[in-house]
Amino acid sequence: MKTLLIAAVLIAGPALGAPMPGDVHNAPLPAAVADTSFIAPDGSRTLQQSITIRAPVAILWKAFADAQEFRKWNAPVAAIDLRTGGSIEASYDPKKPIGDPDNIHHRILTYLPERLLVCQNVQAPSGLKGHEALAQVVSVLEFTPLQPGLTRVTLSQTGWGKNAAANGLYGFFKKGNAQVLAHMNATYGGGRGAK
Questions:
Q1: pLDDT given at position 5
Q2: Confidence at residue 18, expressed as pLDDT on a 0 to 100 scale
Q3: Of 97, 107, 96, which Cα lies nearest the Cα of 134?
Q4: If DSSP states are collapsed to H, E and C, what string results for the chain?
Q5: pLDDT value at position 26?
Q6: What is the pTM of this model?
Q7: Low-confidence residues of the chain: pLDDT under 70
Q8: How far apart are CA 166 and CA 168, in angstroms?
Q9: Residue 94, phi then psi, degrees to nearest 5
């Protein structure tokens, strides 16, 4: 089931799709996902989750940085312009072309190859309740090689406010981002991740 990433971050990932059915706030996080979320000195919240995946950092980086690879495991529609000032655009509806006003669109603020990807949402699906709160959130995806073939992937979203829209989305992304990390682990690490 696709849920709203980026996307991870993410920014990107299943956390960038349609809302999940049922009560996502009470569902348990996947066992291999560690939650180290915290409140920043300015009072804003940072949602931070990580997973250790039995895969080389180069493979996991490509899963987020290469549009063809991203489409294999995450969203059927994706375009990635990997550069500072570039973008990540995705849709979980295969009928939505790149450029559709209802696609997920992130601006890449900066990146370090195979180490760091920082982006900010500039367009979210219109059906996502409270999507305007995402304008204040910055997503940071970190790749930390622990040993050959073992990588910790950490997804942090900074700048979460405390208003009603931000509260609803924070809970939604807490589950969605964890599912993105777990899905990445299942795809590239055979589901054998460890906290």
A1: 40
A2: 35
A3: 107
A4: CCCCCCEEEECCCHHHCCCCCCCCCCCCCCCCCEECCEECCCCCEEEEEEEEECCCHHHHHHHHHCHHHHHHHCCCEEEEECCCCCEEEEECCCCCCCCCCCCEEEEEEEEECCCEEEEEEEECCCCCCCHHHHHHCEEEEEEEEEECCEEEEEEEEEEECCCHHHHHHHHHHHHHHHHHHHHHHHHHCCCCCEC
A5: 53
A6: 0.85
A7: 1-27, 191-195
A8: 5
A9: -65, -10
Nearest to 140 by CA among 5, 1, 40, 18: 5
pLDDT of residue 191: 66
Looking up tokens 């990146």 gives 111
Q: Give CA separation, 124 vs 41, 42, 60, in Å.
A: 28, 26, 25
d(CA 149, CA 58): 10
